[in-house]
Amino acid sequence: MLLSIITINYNNASGLRKTIDSIVNQVFKNFQYIIIDGGSTDTSIEVIREYETKIDYWISEPDNGIYNAMNKGLVKAIGEYILVVNSGDHLLNNDVLNTVFKTPSLKDIVYGDILWNDNGNHYTQVFPDELTFNFFRTNSLGHQATFVRKRVHDVVGLYDENYKIVSDWKFLILAICKYDIPYCHIPLVIAECGRDGISCMPENLDKIAIDRNDILQKSFPAYVPDYRQMDNLEEHLHRLRRNFAISIQRTIKSLFTKKH
User: Fold this and answer.
1) Which residue has the higher pLDDT, 174 or 198?
2) pTM > 0.70
């Protein structure tokens, strides 16, 4: 089994159906499909049962949050690679997995790009070929487009259930920046995702920033003062540029006024 795909769901029957359809109709068939439902009270279980012959493992029971559910899926995964596509998100087309696994020399972390759907407005997020610590300070990869070799979890661990929003970010920054896990970028849109997820909600941005800072302080304490100093210098440079631009505009306006 080359790939394990994990979908977590809670009371999102319509989104779940779209997700399942995009997975079970893939041309590529060498995967295990796992659904972890959090004890839904809508029609999600009926949807799962419709596709039951194409699902290798599923369970519906209360959980302790997104990462607890994802970890339940990881424990059941037997594939060489893991991909998490949660309900509401979907693989872009039926040939996506086939294209990914035809790519030569895949690394331990393989990531593609994401098509975002923001209330009908679509735009593509293209991730960089080179991942740096500075990138992860304010960004992350999309887990819906990131294939992780299962053995990477043996090094980094499961998702940290102490954090409710940023544990996939924590996993990736540790994997790339602390454990130097090999990675590669495939210039291919893997999945379409909505902007209604918990990490996209404006009311959660402050919490995300606090939790990320907490993780940085604990995992990369020597880096934090240097980057704060760099941020201050960049902010100061931005102010100087802005003031210089305003000064030039005023000078030009003054010269123009004198001539007329």
Assistant:
1) 174
2) yes
